[in-house]
Each structure stands twice: as structure tokens, then as C-alpha cells.
Amino acid sequence: MIMGPNGSGKSSLSLALMGHPRYRITSGRVKIDSKDITKLTPDKRAKLGLFLAMQYPTAIPGVSVANFLRTSMRNLRSSVKPPEFVKSLKTKMAELKIDENFASRGINEGFSGGEKKKMEVLQLSMLEPKYAVLDETDSGLDVDALKLVAAGIKKSSGPKIGILLITHYQRILRYIKPDFVHVLVDGKIVKSGTHRLAEKVEKQGYAGIQI
After folding, report:
1. What's 2-55+113-208's CATH class?
2. In this predicted model, what pLDDT tens digit does every residue of 103-129 receive, in sequence order?
């Protein structure tokens, strides 16, 4: 987990990792399973197993949720059998309490903030990447939606996937216990620790833990 105040570089880090053209890495390298991906395009990074849930998910009118996921899965895997895809999609949407009619709607078109975040977790669970960067997936969620999103993240996590959760708040720790917590300030990690570090941030603020 990475925490940090506004403007500390959390979202910039996530976008740079995914290869956003607006960001240029001037030093250091990004690797996936020892493979240098620093100069690869976002689609090639995705095919190697990297996934990004954006802080502000983009609406894509005219591209339905079902078609988007089916096409994405087809590009990431050799084949996707339609019956298995439909069954999996319905199951995972039900787990997140997303109405089935959302499958035929344009991606994030007219969705509320909470619905957009649920959709990011739906993509995570369907695409099954090796590594997932979740940029403030918990922000803007009410208590019930937060529980569902946290449960979805926990179900997707495990020995076959690494998750980097970026957040402002400690509240998601009620449902998810990270292995490590890192605090980012002015583009640098200033402190690392266990989930207890996040609790300390909640009590003392970021100024109280800077070194």
C-alpha cells in the first residue's frame, strides 16, 4: 500500500508505471518478472500482466462493458469461450452488486463515482492480471460500497497476483490488511512499515511521520 498527501506523486507514479505518454522516466527502470518494460507501450505492459485501476475512470460511450471485457480478455489470452465468459461476468457482477443491465451500457457512461470504482474492480477480477495498481479505488465510496470493493480486491489478491493499493485513508484497512505500507511525500518514500504505519498516519497526519 502507498499513502501520501495530495500532490505527493501517487497518481503520477501509477501512470508512469503503466506507460502513460504524458510521463517520461528519466532514471531508473520498471520491471515485470525481471523483464524491463520501461520503454514498452501500455498495451504491451498489459499483455505482460500489468493492470491499472485509475483514480478517475474514463467514460467510453458506445463501447459496452461486456464487449470491452470480452475484447480485453481475448487480447490477453488465446481464447475466451462465450458461455464461460457470460457465466463469469454475471457471477462477478452479482458479487459487486452491479445490476446485469450495466453489461450492455457504455463503459462508465452516466455511472456514479461508486459505480465507476466497482467497474474497475470488476475489470480486475475478470482480467486476472499478474500485478495490479489500484489508484484510490476506495475514494468516494459509501460504507456499503467500500465493503464490496474491498471484498472484491481481497478475492482477487493472492499468491498469483501482486496488488499495489494507493490511498489517502486508513479506513480501507478495516477490510484489507496490507503486507507493507509506504508513505510517499514529494515523490519520495519517506517511511515504510506494516499496517500500523497507516494507523499512525490516521492519528498524527503525514507531518507527524516524515523523516
Report:
1. alpha beta
2. 999 999 999 989 999 999 999 999 999
Three-state DSSP state, 11: helix
Distance CA(142)–CA(140), nearest Å, equals 7
What's this model's pTM, rounded to 2 decimal places?
A: 0.90
For the chain, give every domain's residue range: 2-55+113-208
Q: 52: closest CA among 22, 12, 85, 89?
A: 12
The alpha carbon dihedral of 40, 71, 96, 140 has a sign of positive
CA distance 29 to 40: 11
Return all residues near 138 (Cβ < 8 A) that are at least 6 apart: 117, 146, 149, 150, 167, 169, 171, 172
171's grid cell: 479506513
150 neighbors 137 (Cβ within 8 angstroms): no
